[in-house]
Write a structure and sequence with these properties.
This protein is an alpha+beta fold. Helix content is about 45%, strand content about 25%. It folds into two domains: about 5-200, Aminopeptidase; about 205-235.
Length: about 240
C-alpha cells in the first residue's frame, strides 16, 4: 500500500487545535526556520549541519516543498491561529526500512518550546493522520539523550522499539531511539479523544453545503409538523 501524501496534506491542512492551525509548507517558512537555527540548542540534535546562512535553509525548505508537491512526503507548518506566526514544521514521510510505514518528525521554533505547543501540534497530527489515511504504524526517532523529544513521543502514545544507528547528512554516525504507535493502540485511546479532542477540521465547501441542506430540510419538516399540529387543534 503506497500512501497518498498529497491527499494526506489536503486533509491535514484543514485541521486546527485550540492554538495552532496547519497549512502546507511554503518557501517563506525558510526565514523563521533560519532564525530558529541561530539557537545552538535547536541545532544540537539535527541530522544536518547548522546552516551558515539563510540561503542554505531556503534551499532546504525549497527541496521539502518540491518533494511535497511530488507526493513524496507531507509537510505541514503549524502556525498560531490568531496571528499566523510560524511555530513548527511537521513532516510525514516513508520510513526507510519499510516505505509502507510513515515516519514523522517535527522542528519547533525556540519561541514555542514553552507552553506545550509541540505536544498540542503532535497530538493533532497523529490523530489527524490516522483519521485521514490508512496508515497502520507511525514511527518517530530521537537521540536517547534528547529527553524532550523522547518524552514528547511517549506523551502522544508512542513506545520505544529499536535503538538504531543512522548517518547524518555529513556522514556522522548517530544513535537514535525509535518509537512507534500502531493504529490498534490509537484506536484503544478513542475514549480519551472523545472526552478531549485534539483538533477539529474546517469542513470542505461540499460538506458545508450538505450541512446547510440538512438544516434547511429539518426546518421545512419542522414547519410542516407545526402546520399539521395547528390543523389538528382547529379541528
Amino acid at each position: 500500500m503506497a500512501h497518498d501524501y498529497i491527499d494526506l496534506a489536503d486533509r491535514l491542512e484543514r485541521a486546527f487545535s485550540p492554538r495552532i492551525a496547519l497549512r502546507r509548507i511554503s518557501l517563506s517558512d525558510g526565514w523563521p526556520l533560519f532564525e530558529a537555527t541561530r539557537n545552538p540548542l535547536f541545532n544540537r540534535f539535527l541530522m544536518w549541519d547548522p546552516p551558515a546562512n539563510e540561503d542554505e535553509v531556503l534551499a532546504r525548505v525549497d527541496a521539502i516543498v518540491d518533494a511535497a508537491r511530488r507526493g513524496r512526503l507531507a509537510a505541514l507548518s503549524g502556525v498560531v491561529r490568531t496571528t499566523g506566526e510560524w511555530a513548527s514544521l511537521f513532516r510525514f514521510q516513508p520510513y526507510g526500512a519499510d516505505p509502507e510505514v510513515m515516519e514523522m518528525g517535527v522542528w519547533t521554533h525556540p519561541r514555542f518550546w514553552q507552553g506545550r505547543y509541540t505536544l498540542e501540534l503532535s497530538r493533532m497530527c497523529v490523530d489527524a493522520c490516522f483519521a485521514a489515511s490508512e496508515a497502520d504504524r507511525l514511527i518517530g526517532a530521537a537521540a536517547p539523550d534528547n529527553a524532550g523529544s523522547c518524552q514528547l513521543m511517549r506523551a502522544v502514545g508512542m513506545r520505544e522499539i529499536d535503538l538504531v544507528t543512522r548517518r547524518t547528512e555529513s556522514g556522522r554516525r548517530v544513535e537514535l531511539q525509535e518509537f512507534e504507535i500502531l493504529r490498534s493502540v490509537w484506536q484503544d485511546m478513542a475514549p480519551g479523544r472523545l472526552e478531549s479532542p485534539s483538533h477539529r477540521c474546517v469542513p470542505t465547501a461540499a460538506q458545508a453545503a450538505e450541512a446547510r441542506r440538512e438544516v434547511t430540510e429539518a426546518l421545512h419538516h419542522a414547519a410542516r409538523d407545526d402546520a399539521d399540529a395547528a390543523v389538528d387543534v382547529t379541528e
